[in-house]
Design a protein that fits this description.
alpha+beta, 9 strands, three-stranded antiparallel beta sheet
């Protein structure tokens, strides 16, 4: 079991997407999506310049990877089992607008980009991640302050990229800590930090993750 940690600079509800009873990481963080396996944990930590202040030592979300599939398989999965993950930009429902299943493989192996959180400039990175990480055991806090204990602050990663090997000594401590905070897993405990911004604009075509 490994622990991947990174700085989640733009928490907009799309990457990760914690809605509809599944937490999914389908866009952004291509290296983590390529190499993380079932049983690993992925932790998005706050930014020093987030919309709610300096929350670099706060957990925005943590997901245990319970499934992993290619982007093509994810598109097929969403069509049948989780259609709300397919973005609908004209919806009045925020959670439908930030759907992360933005690559349409219905015409073959070359995907068509749906209107959603990313545009064509993000496509190389998105497709380079190959996989979608799926969790049925996750904690999503969004803008709610959930600070790491001092003993776990070494997992904080303030730059681009992520940590994993350096986190190995903290894996079990982190899991024990988050599992015993008293939060019910698989629920959205706080709104995405950028929800208000996108609700006002009603335009997420320029996701900055």
């Amino acid at each position: 079991m490994r622990l991947f940690s990174y700085c989640l600079r733009y928490d907009d509800g799309a990457a990760p997407n914690p809605f509809w009873e599944l937490c999914t990481l389908a866009i952004c963080k291509p290296v983590i999506r390529r190499v993380a396996n079932i049983g690993d944990w992925v932790v998005g930590l706050g930014s020093t310049q987030s919309p709610v202040g300096n929350i670099a030592d706060c957990v925005v979300y943590a997901m245990k990877v319970t499934d992993k599939m290619t982007l093509q398989k994810y598109d097929e999965f969403c069509r049948v089992h989780s259609p709300h993950k397919i973005p609908k930009l004209d919806s009045e429902i925020f959670e439908e607008r930030v759907g992360d299943c933005i690559y349409d493989y219905s015409q073959g192996e070359q995907p068509v980009l749906r209107s959603g959180a990313h545009d064509i400039s993000n496509q190389k990175g998105d497709l380079g991640g190959v996989n979608v990480l799926i969790s049925q055991h996750f904690y999503y806090f969004g803008k709610k302050d959930v600070h790491l204990p001092t003993s776990l602050t070494p997992i904080v990663h303030k730059n681009q990229g992520h940590k994993s090997t350096a986190n190995q000594a903290y894996v079990y401590e982190f899991v024990t800590w988050i599992e015993n905070l008293g939060y019910t897993p698989n629920q959205v405990h706080g709104e995405p930090q950028l929800k208000k911004e996108y609700t006002l604009k009603r335009d997420i075509s320029n996701c900055r993750c």
